[in-house]
């Protein structure tokens, strides 16, 4: 009888979770490569993954051409649907609007406030820096529905202008899942409103990114799904409750430190596709795994060597997380590339989708910690 009660409680709890399915679609890079204009565009819009982590008073983003996990939310009454990137590296929600005249808005869904009976005009200016341009717009509020959860009077941004690079992005906008402390205009993030309004069983969310299948990836609001991982969850305290930032001790290959010597900081970020670090460290890692790096920092390897390439171990707050070559090398029809991005000299790292595909990530806002477990 005791186990029946426990099982019933677990079933009831699982039914309280809210799932946001993610689509693993084609990235901007793939779209541009198919059209033969990737090299031209990348020169015009250089890759600057660290741009969004510079706190300058505006909410920052970057133009990551490799992002391909998107989810569909709805806004307004009746609902209007939009595809967004769920980004743990930013805190604002924004989407294109009917007031946007930039080319980037013409091939995306645009929010029409006049078709929503729950729309409220705010009017404050919003500016989001990309590193190669910006999104400018206004703040408004309306009902936002995410994974079956309706948040009334959610404040969000609607664009009036957008950087040209957004023309090539499959997603319409961004839904930030970091903390309010870095939100532009101090807007309360969508997740924070879910928690304060008692819409979730627990003040946490978790992210599962599928390795190969176009289906199966999801954000779970209100808890975690034990079917997505195996083994124990390792909980790591945040060093800063702004981004999901933690302490990284070292990066090693075959027991030798190849990067982050003496320790550094790392941000768990679903809004960055690669593992990003200082240029010298990333170059060293690529060299150690036998990759050749071009002028843009792309590192290619012989596809036939993947099975014999070494694992890379990231030690986070005393706990080792190993990423095999099958996870850090991506294979296309023409080549195989390592999933490492380089920028700058600061000891700041981003553990993006390359890492999160290997480790199920749980984001606990109440206890200010991140949980990591081996994905299945």
Automatic annotation (TrEMBL):
- What molecular functions are annotated in GO for this chain? aspartic-type endopeptidase activity
Superkingdom assignment? Eukaryota
User: Pfam families, from UniProt?
Assistant: A1_Propeptide, Asp
Where is the catalytic site? 87, 269
Q: PROSITE patterns annotated for this entry? A: ASP_PROTEASE, PEPTIDASE_A1
**InterPro entries of this UniProt entry?**
Aspartic_peptidase_A1 (IPR001461), Aspartic_peptidase_AS (IPR001969), Aspartic_peptidase_N (IPR012848), PEPTIDASE_A1 (IPR033121), Peptidase_aspartic_dom_sf (IPR021109)
| Enzyme Commission number(s) of this protein | 3.4.23.1
Keywords of the record, alphabetical order, are: Aspartyl protease, Digestion, Disulfide bond, Hydrolase, Protease, Signal
Peptidase A1 domain sequence ranges: 69-373
Report the top EC class in one word: hydrolase
Where are the disulfide bridges? 100-105, 260-264, 303-336
Keyword Disulfide bond included in the entry's annotation: yes
Keyword Hydrolase on this protein?
Answer: yes
Q: Which residues form the signal peptide?
A: 1-16
The protein here is known as pepsin A
